[in-house]
Amino acid sequence: MSGPVAAMLPGGRLHLQHGPIDLVVGAHGNVRRAFAQIEAAFRGVLEGLVGELALLRAPVREDYPQAHGPVARRMVAAVWPHRKVFVTPMAAVAGAVADEMLAAMVAGIDLDRAYVNDGGDIAIHLAPGQALRVGVAGKADIDGDPTGELDGFAAIPFASPVRGIATSGRGGRSLSLGIADAVTVLARDAAAADAAATLIANAVDIDRPAIRRLPAHAVREDSDLGDIPVTVAVGDLDERDIAAALDNGAAAARRMLSRGLICGALLQLRGQRRVVGGASAPVAAAAD
Amino acid sequence: MSEATAQAAEAGESGIVRCDACPVLCRIREGKTGACDRYANVGGVLTRTDPLLLAERAVGRNAPLVPFLEGSQNWAGEIAPRPPVFVTGVGAGTTYPDYKPAPFIVSQQYQGVDTVTVVTEGIFSYCSVKVKIDTDRHVGPEQATVTCQGEPVGHVMTAEYGSQMLSLGGVRHLTGGGKREGTVTCDLMLKLCNKEAVELAVEGGAKLTVQAGKPPVIDSHREERMRVGCGSATIGMFARQWFGHADEVIVVDDHITGVLSEHQAGRYLDMKPAGIRVRGRKSTPGRYFQVANPGAGWGGTDITDPLTIVEKIDPKTAWPGLRLLMVSTTGEESAYFILDDKLKPVPAPMPAPVAKVVARIGENCEPALCSVLFMAGAGGSLRAGVTENPVRLTRSVRDRLTRVTLGGAPAYVWPGGGITVMVDVTRMPDRSFGHVPTPALVAPIEFTMRLSDYAELGGHIESVVPVERVLGEARRRGGAWREDNPWPLDVAVPEAAR
Question: How far is B447 from chain A (nearest CA, A)?
């Protein structure tokens, strides 16, 4: 069994990997100490999660799940407000890891800017007066795989409440109930953004024969989604279907916005898009 | 793979494999990957998706080498006898801090003997790069600091014959200095070891561009040929061949210019003194320092007309008709003169026997190259990935029962304690090296021996897998074996049987 691995990436970024966790970390300031702190904190994260995996894979219903580890507690807190729909704490795992690692990295040091990018779910630290520009790449090919093309930027100044960005959809490693190419959410932290992006992406949906679904456990044996159908292929959809699916997702996003759960969202499907949250949405410099 | 595959073999339940590569312990259906996308279930076998480099040896000598491409051949189930394969550590991954067996412990029969190769990637803090630069140009004083991007990364060490030597990297620059010093040093070592070009500066010396297997560039001048020797050495090498065909030979060299009739070699041949005095400072008879300034002319000097280094011709000793050859230490420049009645050198056609020796100087000049040797100590905890009793691996290497290779390239093992190895990076596959942020270098390393010897030294026998298992790896990377590298598995068979 292999343990955590750390490596430097071009541009002075740090790469931390253990099992399915891949973090890309950047910092401006006392980078040496910041990286030492996050490397130390990264040890044991995966084991900690695995230790209470049963709880984290169980749907959240009436009772608040009593998680122990710091990452697990962040996951539960992030999904708790969404418990009216089917959700497990795993919906926020990537964002929660990013938040916890960011907190460990910045503890006790002055950093101008820092971020922890956990496979597209990003936790952000900003000192007063600082800002960060984050590229949003939501375009996908016909298989739902991201093209990597940048189609917008989210500019996040210190004054903004946003400290987390997450993207969900068919492109990532997680399974989706919906058909969104990508849903990018800005929220107060990465775990909140992650949970919301997952659920908004699930809601970008429409019932059409062109959409092929399979029970989740048939696709991934260990999926926390059990026998819930997940999307495995999306065939031809006309423009009205695409618009209707996006509108379903946008409605879910607006409900979250009004409850203060997110700061904004960008929903993308087959070249169409919806923006929820106005000025703070991640389309400040969108290409179109 | 060692542990993971052992587990996979036990898996039975409807083609689902339990991956134990990380604590998540994913259950992976056939044709699917685990949560990490790094391990997959391929036909019921847990398989790494990172490429691992395998080198295939041609069956017969001089047989055409056909490198196999990724996924182009399905080795499992192949009927024809497959050519011998060596599993390199490139892409193998590491089990640092080595409390468990190395990632791949591979067995195969070779010439009727069961062999084992323990394949891993070592993380080396104690490692350095020794660079030999074929040039006589002054690159800087011994002990001078060598810098890269303004950071100290090594020093100039003792010059060797025809070459300047640098020692770069090492634990003190990697982790003993500032953060930037460590990062720059690591990056520099990585580039040099991966056969890329790097730019260096020597304090009080030259700016250098160095790349393994390529000519050095020294202060923007690309060195093409090594001189055959200094002027004095050239005299010594060819004196007998000139004897009887020339009365005097002056070999022009920026370091030591040689004058045949005055030189020990001329005296030995009982040559008559010619009375042609060259400029510069006399060292010993027939050997002169500083006959001109350094430059891009004859023999690394700034002269273009060789006669300008002749200070005077002594009328008491010289004689009309004296045959004079002037030549540089690479044979690239040469001129033949005959003294007239006023003892003035007059250009003349060069006789064939003289021209033949001039050509021979050129023939004996080798291309000037940079050689890059990676040096590292593999005697530490890395050994625990090989055996439960690490010192036995050291002894086995010392007793030559175990052969150490880096990416399949032969390693020189230093005498004394530990397993301190040196390897020519040009004999290793491209992009063999990686790094970790410590900073330290990651290099492939393989230990090959008889299976029986492996058992005897306390090896992780339970983790040995047949090579066919590795050939089934989903994303192996193939390459042809370099025939100029000794075949590591030969260590297992008696010399007579090879």
Answer: 21
**Amino acid, single-letter form, for residue B288:** Y
Q: How far is the C-alpha of A259 from the C-alpha of B68, rounded, in Å?
A: 59
User: Total structural domains in chain A?
Assistant: 1
Compute the distance between CA of residue B364 and CA of residue B362 in angstroms, rounded to an integer.
Answer: 5
Q: How many domains does chain B have?
A: 1
Look up residue B465 and give its amino acid: V
pLDDT in tens, chain A (288 residues): 667 877 776 677 888 888 889 898 999 988 889 999 999 999 989 999 999 999 999 999 989 999 999 999 999 999 999 999 999 999 999 999 999 999 999 999 989 999 999 988 999 999 999 988 777 655 555 555 555 454 566 778 899 899 999 988 876 667 889 999 889 999 999 999 999 999 999 999 999 988 889 888 888 877 888 888 999 888 889 999 999 999 999 999 999 999 999 999 999 998 898 989 864 444 433 332
> Residue A73: exposed, middle, or buried by beta-carbon count in 10 A (0-12, 13-18, 19+)?
middle
Are B95 and B385 in contact, with CB atoms under 8 Å apart? yes
Cβ contacts of B32 on chain A, cutoff 8 Å: 219-221
- Which CATH number belongs to the domain containing residue A74 in this structure? 3.10.520.10
B125 touches chain A (CB under 8 A): no
User: pTM of the entire structure?
Assistant: 0.54
B299 part of a folded domain: yes
Residue B356 resides in a domain: yes
Residue A136's nearest CA partner among A119, A148, A118, A126 is: A148
DSSP 8-state class, residue B495? G
Give the closest of A14, A20, A173 to B24, CB-based.
A20
Structure tokens at A122: 């990003």
Q: Cβ of B91 under 8 Å from any chain A Cβ?
A: no
The answer to whether A19 contacts B95, with C-beta atoms less than 8 Å apart, is no
**B180 and A CB contact within 8 Å:** no
A138 inside domain = yes
Find out whether A173 and B35 touch, Cβ atoms under 8 Å. yes
Collapse the DSSP code of B344 into the 3-class scheme (helix H, G, I; strand E, B; otherwise coil) and give the result: coil
Nearest to A78 by CA among A61, A90, A86: A90
Give the minimum alpha-carbon distance from A240 to chain B in angstroms, rounded to a whole number.
34
